[in-house]
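Backbone-to-sequence.
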């Protein structure tokens, strides 16, 4: 559901209300857009459309952020009530339905299998699975088309609860080494600083891996030198490394088992990527979600 009302011939959409609430909570259009996984122009246009419908500006813009106007101060409590009421309505309507779970392509199938095994033990009795890119998953969560998403922990998301579900080490496949069995450095750790300035082949940022890599290098003060092209999938990263286009960084589970990869260290400590479950704070299915996650994360008996 995206349209909730029409006022004076104009349509109010649920996404517009979420945009306004996030901007008010975070005091910035750019932070609000990043937290919701949408572009800043999309958020700005959505809020502008809501302002036209309501007949006045909701935010005063400045170089440091945004501040709610007197109109916003009056309407924001009603906006919260509308979204809370919608959450309650959807909770009642979907209370007996399977959970709808979205997953990033970076989430390994073994994690998804654990979720399905957990679902068989507790209500809801099943899961409906959707794999999509990070931006689409966030939008689907925001608009209540998904109940929870499993994604790499790479960005903040407004109005969401989060829970880490797994983590794994990051490994490096040297350029021109893929498929090579005679590699004396295979398995030997490599410091992130040693990769500064070296060419890396990368995938597009649909899954969050590129965002993770860029943040990793920036936080360490290392120079990231991505190859000019972008691979379509993780298998292509290995193939391109074999062609000598650059090295490849991937979570260990995403490499083929016969690759001579090297664990990546930062100041002597293993670099890892975390995966997390996200769901809306006021989604109304928190009990079912936590039951699912508790079972997923319980140690084997």
């Amino acid at each position: 559901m995206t349209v909730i009302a029409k006022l004076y011939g104009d349509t109010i959409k649920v996404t517009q209300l979420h945009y306004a609430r996030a901007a008010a909570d975070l005091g910035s259009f750019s932070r609000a857009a990043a937290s919701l996984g949408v572009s800043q122009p999309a958020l700005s246009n959505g809020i502008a459309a809501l302002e036209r419908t309501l007949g006045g500006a909701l935010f005063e813009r400045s170089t440091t952020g945004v501040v709610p106007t007197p109109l916003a101060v009056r309407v924001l409590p009603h906006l919260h009530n509308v979204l809370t009421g919608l959450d309650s309505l959807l909770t009642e309507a979907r209370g007996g339905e399977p959970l709808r779970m979205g997953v990033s392509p970076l989430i390994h199938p073994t994690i998804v299998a654990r979720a399905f095994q957990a679902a068989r033990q507790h209500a809801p009795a099943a899961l409906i699975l959707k794999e999509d890119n990070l931006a689409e998953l966030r939008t689907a969560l925001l608009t209540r088309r998904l109940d929870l998403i499993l994604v790499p922990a790479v960005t903040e998301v407004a109005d969401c609860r989060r829970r880490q579900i797994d983590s794994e080490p990051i490994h490096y496949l040297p350029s021109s080494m893929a498929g090579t069995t005679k590699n004396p450095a295979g398995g030997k750790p490599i410091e992130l600083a040693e990769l500064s300035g070296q060419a890396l082949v990368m995938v597009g940022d649909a899954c969050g891996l590129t965002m993770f890599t860029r943040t990793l290098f920036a936080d360490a003060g290392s120079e990231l030198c991505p190859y000019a092209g972008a691979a379509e999938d993780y298998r292509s990263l290995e193939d391109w490394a074999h062609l000598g286009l650059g090295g490849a960084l991937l979570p260990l589970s995403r490499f083929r088992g016969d690759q001579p990869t090297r664990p990546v260290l930062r100041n002597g400590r293993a670099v890892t990527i975390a995966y997390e479950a996200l769901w809306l704070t006021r989604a109304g299915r928190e009990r079912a979600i936590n039951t699912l996650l508790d079972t997923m994360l319980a140690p084997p008996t």
